[in-house]
Every structure is written in structure tokens, then in C-alpha cells.
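pasting for the record
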Amino acid sequence: MASLLKNLRPGVPSVHDAGDDFSYEYSFAEEYKGPPLGYSVPEVLPFNLDQVPFAPVAQSPPHNLSLPVIQPFRKTNAELASKTASVSSDHLSREQGDHDDDDDDPLNPKHVKRPSVVTFRHPETNEIVEDEEIVEPASGESSSSNNSKRVRPHAERVGKKGSCYRCLKGSRLTEREVCIVCSAKFCRNCVLRVMGSMPEGRKCVTCIGHRIDENKRGRLGKPSRMLKYLLSKGEVKQIMKDEMFIETNQIPAEDVIVNGEPLDWDQLTLLLTCSNPPKGLKPGFYWYDKASGFWGKEGQRPCQIISPQLEVGGHLQRNASNGKTEVTINGREITKEELWILKWARVPCDGTTDFWVSHDGSYMEVGQKNVKGHIWEKSTVKFASLILSLPVPSSSLTPAGEAESGISKHNIEQKMLHKYLLVGSVNSGTCTIYKQARLLYNVPFSGTELHNIKLVIQRNLYRYLGIILEAREIFEESLYKKSNEQHVGESTSSGTTGEIIDTTTYSISPRLRAFSDWILQYMMSGNLDEIFPAAAREYAPLVEELWRDAAIRATYNRRNEIKNLPKTASYFLERSVEISRIDYEPLDMDILYAEGITLSNGLSSMEFSFPVSAHEDSLDPVYRHDPLLRYQLIRVHPKSLGEKCKLLDMFEDTDVVLFSVALTDYDEYTVDSKGAVSNKILAAKHLFENIITHRVFSNTKFLLILTKFDLFEEKIEQVPLTQCEWFLDFDPVISHNHKTASISKRSNHPPLAQRAFQYIGMKFKSWFNSLTGRKLFVSLVTGLEPSTVDEALRYAREVMVWQKWDPSLRNEKSEITSTTFEASSEEKYNKL
């Protein structure tokens, strides 16, 4: 049915991609205007939907699949927990078996069903479907929360032994990748379909969020040959990093008991990230000597010396290692093997003796202050310890937890952080993109930041008023001179002498003139920022009176003639009365329109995560992104990069560089520090060249963001793109009614601004490829439209992993395909 409707769909322009970045094939429908045809034109006859045949419904699903069910959470009330829950879902049990129709639909591995305390009833068949078992914590068991423990799913083999759990093909000799949760095994054709982007390592999509099989903990962080074959080196490294440090894959903190007390997540993180963590840590009971760093299983002798002074677990018990020697070290009665080592080191152990041993092996008797010696001072003692399988201190031990205090959760928190570097030429829109991103992803501004933004907006308002007042004087002088010359001419011709005209449309009252002269005086001296908005309370009434004056309104109506008045000034001048008040609070649009907002000294940073969109919900789980992934957007002012971008070394771990170029800069010029005048587009190109050729970005992906498209649409109709010498070959064929055609929805020709955007994008792509031999991605952004900023940042997320889905870089056996944005060659757009 789907294929039939697809064939009947109206034709669209066809795109031919032969693996070349610069090839597009277009087809346009035009009305035939020629001699009459000698044959009948084929027609598409209408069809009746009732006449379309339908396949019969299958009686039972093939392969007896057990589909995954979302695990519900147990209610905290014990009385409500025993009740069964009824959930309406059409994914619990299906009657329609269509898994054999298309191999593109991924088959989930069959998991063994377990007795369940929660049941679900199918909404149509009323059939009971069992979910995973929910294990209730024992009454005497210590738990950090009231949440239930979910049983780890286990895959059940459907095909023959050694076959893939999805396609049921292969043998024992076939190379397979194993899920670290359910132990399902997949061939190289199915592993990426079943495991997707692997946000938590090598797990099935349905196993994400579950704890791993403890028997496979030793494999964490060790990539297989299959992954190295399917993915790039950077992707494999990131997957292994996620697999090692993701919180879900760590040992359950409450299952590690140290000195009689279960650990919490912070303590477990500290234990795993110290300079000398326990090796092969598994759930169980352990004892830990904070003073010396001795570590061992409860009831056994020490097996390792880890970092000392870690605040984990409870107090060390005397019988922690079940020693029977009546000799204690730091309150623990030692074993006979440890006693032999003390005697070998010539430590007096006659009778009942209590020693205090530090991390470096120095010892003293309890109650004494003098150090009597060092246990491991002699190499023979270390050799004897190795013979008796006792640990010896490592040279990397740090005293008193000096290194541990700064580690904390850094390693584990960094596992989900991907970095975007946002940079561009001056006034290219990077600040607006950054502010829009903070508003989009709910990263609020602090109280100090909002206060500084308010001061910047009010300061800009007085600067805009000063520009209006300066223009008013020019308009007044010009009109005054013109009126007097006309009046003198009329008086001379009539032979009468009239009075000189001293007032015009642009004249203001003496009170406002004094205020105007005062503002202009501070503007000329460059001290306007020091006066305003500090004096906003005093001069707010004058601002309101000034804005309501007819002369100021007449000047404002000629704002298009004032060249040094920014385009965003109109937004603030219209609200000058509100903004000049002392109780003014900036709105979101005020923050976006404001100029000169610097949230930090040349560098701004924010962390965010992408909310799940409606479009992503409709995608196959393989192609969805993990919503828990965190991203960091770093905005850097170009002047902060130093001469020839020498400070780019600090951003060597950047995943994607977002370079911003304003489309409206093609006819504007800038003056550098040496006094040389250059086109802004060419200056941005030079800055971009310094960044892309820097050694730290040799393997980094780049996304070119072309901004200010709304202003570009208006400007290109008045100023040709060839004003920039780099765009001299832009020569599209323009019809006499191209403006009308660009508005009409039936036109096959894109607007001039759209063609120019595609042309500029292709110029940068070709130039980038000639310098680096790599692919440049391009996105169009209007900073004041949140949807375009969101699309650009989500596109950067796709760029980060584009090699995984690009069919041109995958082997023939891969079934995953994707599409990427490509623009056609310059010649194509010159012919439009």
C-alpha cells in the first residue's frame, strides 16, 4: 500500500548524488507550447481507495518475539505497590506480523520472561503481558532511595548456536559484538542497527538504562575489531569513554559495603577516580584503612594499597581481616602473614602491641610521637611481601588526599560533554546566536548578568538618542538655511525686507535644547557611558519629554537618512520611555536585540542538552540521539584569539567548530590594526583560513553559519553581490518579473537571495575543500528566529557523527543510510 501511494505521489525535482559534493541534477515542469502532438498524452486515472487490495492479517507473529516493555516505577506507598497497573499501549502485544516484509525494521533480541509483580493488559485482546521482575529491597537492607531494583534483561537465542540474534545468520566462526547487558550477539551488519549511537557503550537500544552484566565488567573500555572496522577512531574512543564512565555502567554504589556501611554515589565516584583506585572492584564487603591505604575484602588480608585519606565507608573494625595475632595496625588486628612481614622488617612485635602506620610505611607505637622506622625501607621486605601475596606501596600514592580533592566527579561528568566552539568575524551574529541558545535551552541569566544587560541597553538608548539629536541639529540647520534663503529671495523680488525665520519643524524648546547640548557634549568627549545610565533616575522624565517632542519625532521619521544609526535602534527608541525608567527589566527580545552585551571577558560558555523534538519521536530508535547527552557551547570573540589565532590550542578537544559569517557584509569594509582597508567578507575568509589551517583542528569538523539572511534579502535587491571581488563570477539570469516570481508559490525559480546564499555557501565549500581536502557543512541562520538557531545547533550534532551515517564512508555490508545537506555547483546557480 505504501509503495503504491508513493508511486502515485506528484513528481518533485530529482536530485542525483554520485558521491560528488558539487553535482545536482534538476528537473522542472513547464507547460508545453509547441505544435500539436500526433499521439495521445498518457494520463493518470483517478483510483478508488476501496479497490486497493489489502493483505490479510497474520494470525501470529513470526519468531515468537518478546517485545520490550517500558519498566514502570514502584509507588512508594506499600499498599499501592501491591496493586496491578493497567496500561494502554499498542506496543505490548501485536497481532500483525510484518517483520519479514522488510529487513530494514530492526528485530530486538528475545529476552527471557521472568515472574512479575506488575502485569499489563492488552487494550484489544485483553491478554495479560508480563513485564520484568521488580525486586523489592529487603526490610533490613540499607537503601539510598525508595526506588526498586530492576532485574537485568537476558537475551534468549532464537536461531542456531553462533548465529546473530537479529538476522539469525552466521555460525560460530562469525565475528560478533556482544551486548554488555543481555549478552545478545550481533554480526557487523546488525550491530549498529540494534545498538544505535551507543550512548552508554555496547548496549542494545532496549538495554539502555540497565546495569551491565558484572561478568563483562572487565571488557569495559576495550574496543573490538568489529567496532574499529565499522567506526572511525574518534567515534570508537568516545564510545569506550562513555562505556567506562557512564553512571549506569558503574557498580551500584549501595552494593559496595566498606567498613560495614554502603557507599553512596559520591563516595563511589571518589573511590573510582582516585589516583590509585581498587582494582577489579565488584559488589561485596570490603574494609579500608584510611591512614595507610590498606584495602581488602572483609575477613581477608589486605590485597592492595590504594590512595589514603578517602572519606568513604564507616570506621575500621578490629576484626576486619579476622586476624588472630593480637597485634594491631591503625586499630585492625593483622593476619599472620602481615606479622611475618613486620618481623622481617625488624619491628618489635613481642606481646600485645598497637602500631600506627602511615601511607609511606612509617610506623610508631600508639600514644608515641616518635617515628621508629619504615616498614618497606628495605628491598628484601618488599620482596617478601610479594612472595606472601601482600601489597606494597606505589610511588604514585598521594598523602592526605591531596589529589583526590580536585578530582571528584570530573572524569565521569565529562563523559557526556561535547564541545561546540562558536567564533566568527566582528558583528557576524555570534553573540545573538549565543543569547538565543541560552533562551532556547533554558539556561537562565544570573542576576548579575541581567543587571549588566540592563545597563548596556539603557546606555545604548542614550547613545541612540544622541545620534537622533545630532541628526536633528543637521536637519534643523539645513532647513533653517534653506527657508531663510527662500525668504530672502522673495523679499528681494518684492522690494520688502522681512524678518529672519528662527524656528523650523526641527526646533525644540530651550529646556530640551539644554539637555540635548549636554548629551552631545558628553558624546563628543567619549564619556557618555560614564554618565548614563548612572543618571537614568534623574533624566528619565526628560527622556519621555524628549521622545514626545514633535521635532524629535520628525527627525526619527527620517531615520533611513541617518547612516550611523544601527538598525536595531528603532526597536529600543520606540520603547524609550519604558527603558529609561529605573524599574525597567529587560525582556527576552530586548536581550536579543541589544548590542555590545559581553557576558564575560571575551569568552562565554554554556552547557545544555537538546530536548526531544516531535520529529525525533517519529524516528527509528537507531537514529535517535540520547537526550541525556550534554553539550557545551563556547563563544569566543575573534580579538581574544590573539595574533594569528595562537590561543586556539586551548580548544583542542572541540568536537565541532561553528564559524559565523554575516551575509550582509559583502559590500562593507573594515580597517585593521595596521590601517589597511579590506572587505568584511574577505576579512572573515582570512580569519576562517587561520582557524581551519591550525594544527589543533586538523581532524575537527566545521559548520559554516551564514547569518542575517532577513537583512540580506532586502539588501541584495538594491546592492549587487559583485561588490565583493570574491563574488565577481555571480551572474544569475534574472527575469524582468523576478520579484513577482519570488513571491509566487508556483514559480520554479528560487528568489535571488536564496540563490546568492547557495552560491556563497558553495564558494566557501570549494575553498575549504581546496585547503583541507575535507567536507564543509553550511547552515542558514536568522539570529532573531529561534527555530533557525535550534536547527543549526541540532545540525551541528548531526555533523559531529556524520561519518557514521554517510554511506560513502561505510563498507558495502552496511545498511545504514542518511542524507546530508549539499549545495550544487556555482555554475548551476549562475544558470538559474
